[in-house]
Amino acid sequence: MYALVDGNNFYVSCERVFRPSLLGRPVIVLSNNDGCAIARSNEAKALGITMGAPWFQIRKQLPDAGVIALSANFTLYGDMSDRMTSIAAGLGPEQEIYSIDECFIGMAGIRGDLVARGHAVRERLLQWIGIPTGIGIGRTKTLAKLANHVAKSADRKPGSYPTEFARVCNLAKLPASDLDAVFAATKAEDIGESVRVSTSSSPSWEFTPHWTSLGWILALFASAGRLCSSGRCARSRVRPASTCRRSRPQTRRSPSRAASVDR
Q1: Which of 122, 144, 171, 224 is the most buried (most CB within 10 A)?
Q2: Could you write out the three-class secondary structure of the chain?
Q3: Strands 68-71 and 37-40
Q4: pLDDT tens digits for 223-263?
Q5: Sheet bearing 2-7, strands edge to edge
Q6: Is 235 exposed, middle or buried (0-12, 13-18, 19+ CB in 10 A)?
Q7: Is the distance from CB of 110 to CB of 92 less than 8 angstroms?
Q8: pLDDT range class, residue 42, cuts 50, 70, 90
Q9: Residue 144 backbone phi and psi in degrees, to 5
Q10: Among 31, 25, 139, CA closest to 39
Q11: Would you call 257 exposed, middle or buried from its count of C-beta atoms within 10 A (0-12, 13-18, 19+)?
Q12: What's the pLDDT score for residue 236?
């Protein structure tokens, strides 16, 4: 069982911690040399500002929208990342730093209500360092990543998913039919080419379906995981997690390699 803790609009959230006047306003953080948007607040997303949009185009297209553009401060973001991951580690006994704003938490053997535990850690992060987060829980890292997407979308876009999935979502406790409905409700642009995913039976709640290739991608990852767990990685050319560079514990991301982070 895994949880993925992900900071919401991370670079923008870091700036807002020290500049509360930015709350509720459209804010973007720009790449090196102030070239393009690499993080956007929810208000900026609502204006239609896309990831990677050049700043000169944004300024020309939205002259009266009150968009606030900030130069990136990677030193600040790295420090806040260390603080966030150290607090998030309280969610479970194992932690893997996945990127500057994400970490996986191993939750195997933890008893009790995992959703309640997730909400408690999320509130602690918000109170202690002021960073809003989304937490997704799943039986695999792939499903935890999907659950995190659901948790964020349900919070930011009411009606996209059931409200009980907002902020903290545990896909591991869903029956197969409801899990299929989550696949169907995920928009094609979030995954790739549009491929229809069939559902096994009627779910207990309804979504407006956006048929995607998500089910096939998740099935591929699940198959790879089963090969690794059965010791057949060498034969299938799938490396065990312990040999993958990304899976090695990290404590800091180099500022020069920091990527856009608002998902």
Answers
A1: 144
A2: CEEEEEECCHHHHHHHHHCHHHCCCCEEEECHHHCEEEEECHHHHHCCCCCCCEHHHHHHHCCCCCCEEEECCHHHHHHHHHHHHHHHHHHCCEEEEEECCEEEEECCCCCCCHHHHHHHHHHHHHHHHCCCEEEEEECCHHHHHHHHHHHHHHHHCCCCCCHHHCCEEEHHHCCHHHHHHHHHHCCHHHCCCCCCCCCCCCCCCCCCCCCCCHHHHHHHHHHHHHHHHCCCHHHHCCCCHHHCHHHCCCCCCCHHHCCCCCC
A3: unpaired
A4: 444 444 444 443 333 333 343 344 444 444 444 444 555 65
A5: 94-99, 102-106, 2-7, 133-138, 168-170
A6: exposed
A7: yes
A8: very high
A9: -65, -40
A10: 31
A11: exposed
A12: 33
Based on the number of CB atoms within 10 Å of its own CB, is 76 exposed (0-12), middle (13-18) or buried (19 or more)?
middle
Virtual torsion, Cα 81, 168, 119, 131, nearest 10 deg: 30
* Alpha-carbon 92 to chain mean position: 18
pTM of the model: 0.71
Measured CA to CA, the distance from residue 98 to residue 7 in angstroms comes to 12
pLDDT digits (tens, 9 = 90+) for 9-38: 999 999 999 999 999 999 999 999 999 999
Token pair listed for 234? 């060498």
Phi, psi of 8 (to 5 degrees): -75, 125
Place of tokens 């944004």: 58
Six token digits for residue 221? 């990852």
